[in-house]
Amino acid sequence: MDWIVEVVRSPFDTKFLVLIMFMGAGAAFIYKSGGILALQNWIGGRVNTARDSQILTWLIGIFIFFDSYTSTIVTGNATRELSESNHTSREMHAYVLDSTTSPVTTFGPVSNWIGYQVSMIIVGFEAARFTAEEVGITAFGLFLQSIPWNIYCFLAFFMVGFISITQRFYGPMLNAEWRSRKEKKTLRDDATPLSDISTDIGEPSERNPSLFNFFAPILTLLVVGIVSLWWLGGGHQPGVDIATAFQETDVALGLLYGSFAFMAVGMLGSLGFGTMDIEEASDTVVNGFKTMMIATAIIILAWSIGHAAEQVGTAEYIVDMMVGSGIPGSFLPLLIFLAAMFIAFTTGTSWGTMAILTPLAIPLGYELVGLSILPVLVGVLFGGAIWGDHVSPISDTTVMSSIFAGSDHIDHVRTQIPFAMTAAGVTVLVLLLYAVGITSAMILLPLSVVLTAVAVVVLNKFDARRKNLPEVMPTADAIDNGEIDTDALENGTRSDGARVNGQYDLLTSIPLAAVGIVIVYLCLVFAFVTFGL
């Protein structure tokens, strides 16, 4: 009990707990004020196919990069009806939510995940018994260096977009999408969808819904968060450059300022546009806090696990054992990645996995190799923890994705596992290349993206041929209009004249917008890394 109280009373942790409450309230205003309805009204007429609805879900998930719970709630509610009307399977909708929200919040550029991950790196410094001054890098600086090494998260994020744009599915998802397009069943027979917990917030207001109430709070969070991080690091003082400011900043306090502004602008917009009165706005703040209670409980317990491991000397024991075993330091990233995958899968919590492994990985890497390997270890550790979240049926984010997609939970897990395994398999291969001497992230990360694209296409072709289903999933209208030769598919008699695959124009507005927004987002992330260092 003393340890739990101790972690909650830590100034960094206390700020973090308050900021996630503000995050929940801000997200509640986006939903409750009708910002979601305004977004649906604005884009609804442009989204006419399952492919478009999947790409749109991916894009909104990218835009809401500040909290995985918030992103799942807002994105799921914003796109659920569109996905249903365009015959996207509930399984695919849940996959897009799950494999977009967690990866993008892991590397920000502004998110409560960053605050938590930095807090774990601080614990790792303490376990290794060195300070930031002694090694010449802060915990936040080490986090920034680790982002290019978070290979699994980049691949999981990339796969969602690549599969949605190309409509190349495999595994159980191929069957689910064919069922949804051909039979118009977005759920399989006898499926049991999870209930929607948006009742905590209530139905969105239909009084004067405005896009301002969707975009303004998010942009405010981004601007205030980044400026606060710069200011608190002394960036306004003469002679302090951007890199130094981000290195020396108070991450939790900067994100706290941003999250408060996020909530405040959401409230002001709701009142200003008349979508709710002051009493409803006050209730929305409290209800927004409620949506974060599960997250708060998980965070506190994860911190406590990490603190307990520190107190009983787990890090020292593991380091001594590994150092004495003679394991080559170059294989350490692969071992840490596999360990994170296993722990996250069995416990169902990526944050708990980070709390367990970070205090072990940092001192172990520092003792075996030195400071140079720490960004690699931190990046692969965070990625392995997210993989466990994606494939574990007891993961909170996986459950949330099933809830807000209206999917049968086990169906969601079962259809997502092959995709998560593909990204993890490529990550393992890349880490083997690292172990044999290719140690540049600028080589390994692009290579992993290419390998993933090739793997998706090969697996899709193999599975589609094996099941006599289309390689490129057609639209429901194409099947209904007889444009697809379903007899040739079912009989396995694909002739040159039989059209069995869907056809899509890659130069339409939605895929072009998707590619453009993703490029801008990735440039923002890597600019954040570059300026921060």
TrEMBL record:
- Subcellular localization: Cell membrane
Q: Which UniProt keywords apply?
A: Cell membrane, Membrane, Transmembrane, Transmembrane helix
Q: Organism, per UniProt?
A: Natrinema pallidum
Q: How does it sit in the membrane?
A: Multi-pass membrane protein
- The record lists the membrane-crossing segments as 16-43, 55-74, 149-171, 211-232, 252-273, 285-305, 331-357, 364-387, 443-462, 510-531
Stated name of the protein: Na+/H+ antiporter NhaC family protein
Domain Na+/H+ antiporter NhaC-like C-terminal, residue spans: 104-434
Is GTP-binding included in the keywords of this UniProt record? no
Q: Pfam families recorded for this chain?
A: Na_H_antiporter
A GO-annotated cellular component: plasma membrane
Its predominant location is membrane
